[in-house]
Design a protein that fits this description.
With 157 residues, the chain is an alpha/beta fold. The protein has eight helices and four strands, in the order βαβααααβαβαα. Helices cover 50% and strands 11% of the residues.
């Protein structure tokens, strides 16, 4: 299993696809199970994820928060979610898998996997501004406040 973590808009999905094609592996993208995991979150085991359940627009969920507070909320969301991701992977069919996603924080993945099959990607400022708006869920061009949030996430990773 290959593990590709990192910040949004850093090339994780692209690299995962290249590896999957090269090695005839399947891709498990944490983005694909985001809503399902949030819907299945319990208020006791996953309080941050559970609070997302009542919000139709996940971007609205953290809009208005400072970059520091938004990063704190998302990091907690990822910590709560890792067990669900690992459960999915334990139930998946055999064969090679490339796991990619923003949820794959180093402190959550490193205790569980081999270092030689693990990488974290972070974008440069230029790469981020050049590619961020390509995301289907992005509603507006990134600004300096958006970049401040991503800088915090980059520093964490």
């Amino acid at each position: 299993m290959w593990w590709i973590g990192g910040v949004t808009c850093s090339g994780k999905t692209t690299i995962a696809g290249l590896i999957a094609r090269q090695f005839n592996a399947r891709v498990y993208s944490t983005d694909d199970t985001f809503d399902q995991h949030a819907r299945n979150a319990s208020c006791h085991a996953h309080p941050t994820m559970h609070s997302y359940q009542n919000d139709e627009d996940w971007g609205k969920w953290v809009r208005g928060l400072s970059p520091v507070e938004a990063s704190r909320v998302w990091l907690q969301f990822y910590r709560e979610r890792i067990s669900m991701i690992l459960d999915d992977l334990s139930e998946s069919p055999g064969g090679s898998t490339v796991v990619e996603g923003v949820d794959l924080l180093p402190e959550l993945v490193l205790p569980r996997v081999s270092l030689d099959l693990t990488v974290w990607l972070v974008p440069t400022r230029r790469f981020f501004f050049d590619h961020y708006a390509e995301r289907e869920w992005v509603q507006e061009e990134p600004d300096e406040a958006t970049w401040e949030y991503y800088k915090l996430m980059i520093q964490h990773v």
